[in-house]
């Protein structure tokens, strides 16, 4: 893992990178590098290689969820991790990216199914997803 702190890079250096990229043909690689350079103006960037292994705390930060949620996903087998030492866990970055892709696909499929369903089915799906029974929703006026 390598962190690039934008405070350590002069704005003029970023300008030089962006200007040099303008002279190159536009393609996926130059567009990504340009985007990366522009992000350096405002944020700290952390680079993580696919074969790098993260702690549950690091994985939680990457996935934008709590550490207990990451641990629960590992225990359910939804996120693969290995044990190092007696009880510490490490999650490969490639597994985190795969998990994100699976989660994004599931969200997209859910949204598509919801969009194609009738109003009653959609209402029931949303309530079920929120953990609210139809009876409780009716009682609350939903």
TrEMBL record:
Name of this protein:
Helix-turn-helix domain-containing protein
The major lineage groups are: Bacteria, Bacillati, Actinomycetota, Actinomycetes, Micrococcales
For the Helix-turn-helix domain, which residue ranges apply?
Answer: 54-103
NCBIfam families assigned to the protein according to its UniProt record, in alphabetical order: excise
* Ranges annotated as spanning the membrane: none
Matching Pfam families, A to Z? HTH_17
- Give the start-end ranges of region Disordered: 122-142
